[in-house]
Amino acid sequence: MRKRTTIVPLLALLSLALPAPATAQPNGTVVSGQARFQILSPTLVRSEFAGDRRFEDQATYNVVNRTFPRTAYTSAVRDGWLTITTSAMTVRYRVGSGPFRADNLEIKTGGTTASPWRRVVCATGQLCEAEDQLREGLLVAADHPGATGAGFVAGFSYTNNGITATVRAASAGRHRVVVRYANGRGGDGKHENRTLGLSVDGQAPRQITLPATADWNAWQQVSTDVDLAAGEHRVSLTRGAADSGNVNVDSLALLSPDQAYPAVRAVDDCRFGTSCEAENGVVSGAAKIAGEHAGFAGTGFVAELVGGTRLSQRVTSVPATGTYPVVLRYANGVGGDGKHEPRTVLINGQPVTLPVTANWATWATATAQVSLPAGTSDLTVTCPDTGCHVNLDTVGVNTSTQHLALGGYRRSLDGYTGNNGDPQLTPGLMYRDGWYLLDDTPSALRDGNPRVDRGAQPYQDGYVFGYGTNYKAALGDLTALTGGPKLLPRWAYGVWYSEYIDRTAADYRDRILPKFREHGVPLDVLVVDTDFKGHNLWNGWRMDQQKFPDPQGFLDWAHGEGLHSTLNIHPSIQGDDPDFAQAQATAKGKLAKGSCANCYVFDWADPDQLRAYVELHQKMPTDFWWLDWCCDGSGSSKRGVTADSWINEQYSKMGAFAFSRGFGSLQAGGYSGSGPLPTGPWAEKRTTLHFTGDTSSTWGTLKATIGYTSAEGVSTGMSNISHDIGGHNDTTGLRGSETYLDNGQVRYTTKMPDDMYARWVQLGAFQPITRLHSNHGDRLPWQYGPAAQASATKFLNLRERLVPYIYSLAEQAQRTGVPLQRPAWLEYPGSPEAYSTVDSQFLLGPDLLVAPITTPGDVGSTRVWFPPGQWTDYFTGQVYQGNTWATVSAGLDTMPVFMRSGGVLVERSADVSNDAKNPVDALTVHVTAGAKGEFTLYEDKGKRTRIKQAGDVLIVQSSSPSKRKWTVVVHERDGSSRTVQGSGWPVISLRAPR
Prior knowledge:
Number of helices: 12
Signal peptide: 1-24
Structural class: alpha+beta
Protein name: Alpha-xylosidase
Family: Belongs to the glycosyl hydrolase 31 family.
Distance between the termini: 57 Å
Radius of gyration: 29 Å
Shape: globular
Helix content: 10-25%
Organism: Lentzea pudingi
Strand content: 25-35%
Number of strands: 64
Low-confidence stretches: 1-26
Domain CBM6: 126-255, 274-398
């Protein structure tokens, strides 16, 4: 008899000195005074500055490994510059120049020169924008008017949320720290005076009071006196345990006793030979920093310059007085004056004409020759009095290279309709000009404890990637440095059924699973949404005994049928929940009231509260949990660790893996929390299957899924990405096939049009995770018309047959960082078309090109670019030559999917009902006649089978030989195919019979 055990564990988871000469160390380390450089690979160099010379060698929450193979490099000091050169990049640092900033550290890679570090130091009397400072658990927002710069830092809603600014006192003595803030009605419903802690150089904080303002649009200042020595200091504003927070901070300033609050913003330099972000310059007049139009570099752009506006960049390191090209990247749409025409701007007084662009989301460049003196000077862009009505994105000084992101990520796509513009993504690792700085300074140590406080001494810790167009090398470096994406159990790459609708154990056992079997549809994972809970459907902590009378028995039944299950969790608890008293006792009385009615929330950074939280799961046996994190207010006060990353790591220890939104937390702003936090993008992938949230059922959402999955994968290394196949929220009102009760009223489920459903399932079959989901909507094949049903059944079975192939790609991703789904430019970086097709096609592994149809109709078409080589249509056998375009049409029974000549595609030879109960004892291999290529099939317990095609021979080599039956489908160049049975294994002849 199978032992009935619960899967949850019971134990909870708990002043600058003179520089020294540069010295090479035997372990690939070069030290220059307070600066240390570790050469980890040809394309990765750690840059660390410690004012106290205490370099950090412990692993951090981001960086779990620094042991790389030895890399050849050279280092030398010449003319005051330390130069470190590998085969792929050069790093230069001006010896003895202090912390890294734009004018003292540069890299060169692949023809690009860049200044990876940006360090804003606010001198006495300068405006210190909050968004330019080091932030802990806070995002930048711009939804209230009156803020300067790009916006303001929002919330301070959780303990240890804070900002730290670097200031420079011009002289010793009494100064004022003045904070510009707004204090309206907070998320806790209160409108009252609030407090924060102000600390200088890591000393004990003093509490400051921020009086209530009229509303969130009203900005006021509060001042406190400090005594400072001359020089640099760190000023921190933090919500401590005794503070109420819940304020927005726009900026701060260090002032002498009689100085007024400044208007001039502190900025870092723009280094000669690099492309600099317009939003990082000094902006004056009516122009604002904005971000509502897609396609910009950096964090935004300077929006619609008019008469009297000014953008100024301080240019440094000009080698000699002369005339140099200055390249403006701009957009010129219909201006505020209603005109759409060429505009004129003045660069240091010299007029330059900027032709029109198609709209405000279309960017172009214009070049002017500008005289600059040697050394440092200001470069200013102004408008004639009549205005110029353009948006400026970047200013390139003696360079036309742009630092444009390839891909990006966000916490989720909640609320995306497909009709309201593209979701704004946070850039990650990949850029077209081939470099990135992973700033690890804010990260905690790997054990979750914060780094040591260094007082007034500066500290920086960052990893400079210089990969050029060797994007795979960058992903490999990232994986070695921060860990690879989690390899899920093989069954997780099968078919999932999920629906937000009230279900019971009997429903699954007696009605739903029999229908899957009856209609020949595979199923691997049952997702049980929130209505299974007793006491409270949202945040109850026991399974409803009326719906699930034997919770462990339900899990045993699922396992007996070859299924695995997950339960939906919302992370709060009602004060009248039957388990609340025990949870509060375990938490030692520290559970706090949340924003929801009569609910209490958890601080997972506190060991007692974490134990209480973990123990609540014990009465709900399952294989893993779905943390559907919404609206309740639980989080983590742990410094240097993103809340999502922290709790998802705990969930991965409690079950097979974490299934959750990722990269941020609700406490950092909004349901989707789209802004970046320091550890999210790098730590999350080690534990988590990323659920991208509640989107709408539209053709636009379907199409956006194509590009987003690839974008997130390459920018973060996250490979396990799960969208709601079919979307979550109905947009059509079409009556579905089921009824349910809503506040006592009988309602019908909804459904999509048949063509949309069929096309969405087709795309889902080639996504990293195939998870059917909806909000009270039909998602099962037999709930649709005959053509859509046949199509969905066909493609869900194809997905199940492809599980061995996809599992092998997932294992490769764990080792190499190259995600399952990838844009074509990852494999073909030299082809311009590979960059232009990211929103319409993708590669699943290196050998399968997928170009989904995303338009209505029983027959649809899409324009496909075929990368170099030869490509064969998986369904029709038609052959396409590479470096060409073709319009490919398909009915609902098929879709454009193509195999690369030389590629090896492996799938099960027959349809199966699930993966767990069906050994992979018969496989079919697709190859192209006469080609050469290989593929390694990964199986559980480290078993690998190498499949190699050498022209007319297929060689199968296994680390654990078996009696597996092999079938080979040979695709001929004329579009025909033939089948060869695997007699003669391990060498199978592919020659055509005469």
